[in-house]
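Journal club prep, shared notes

We agreed each person brings one worked example of a sequence with its structure written out as tokens. Mine is Ig-like domain-containing protein. I'm keeping it raw so we can talk through how to read the token line rather than staring at a rendered picture. Sequence first:
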Amino acid sequence: SHQLTAGVCVLLLSAPTVSAVSLSVSPNLQQFFRGSSPVYLSCVDDGQTADGWTVKRTRGGLTEDCGAAPDFGRLLGSSCVVDLSAPSETFWCEDSSGQQSDRVSISVSEGGVILEIPALPVITGSDVTLYCTPKEGERRKSYFIRDNVPLGSGPEGKWILSKVNRSDEGLYSCSTDIHPRSPQSRLRVRDFSSPRSSAPTISPPPPSPSMSVLRLALHLVVFCPYVACTALLLSIFSTSSGNTPFVSMETSHPAVQDDATADVTTEHHF
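Then the structure, token by token:
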């Protein structure tokens, strides 16, 4: 049984793990106006920096690492700072063994309006608000589209998705009465789950009645000879003790006052 337990432990320790590394985008958007502030990209695992992972992109059929290509970002601590210029670029995280995170496509708009939509996946059951934001002026009545199908209009330039689920995934865009349609960006929805799941605890099943009887019989087989041997030893000891009913123990006490001495013999009866 010890060998079996050791084998199970080895299997659990050597089981492959699924990476929880993802590409973090700050601000958490997929669309930007040209000339807007830089975007910060980083590889994270459960909210912490993922060591050994690199932000990458593909351009002209070549895969480039952040900071290694002349026009692909600059490293600032654990972040890749990117000044967006191309109409659309796709980024992801990758480690030396080839594991990859989900990919995020970021669009740069030349038009007058963009759709503010999360770059990171949203959790099922949460509420998500999409904004149709003009480059100049205040938000106004906007029209929202998913997978080229009109969803409706938002009087303040926003569209609320309540308690999202997988059916809400798709390509979203927006427009206004005076602005042409924005680029399309995909909303990704993920089920809530812990980034690191531990191995389930397996409780042993309750013993069956037949097993309980068998265990009782085994205990009796082991216990009864022990009782018989103990009784036999006690009987032998009692028999041998009968021949010497008295045990004499003599204790000598030290001298007392007036240099008197006393020998005291104490006799114990068993």
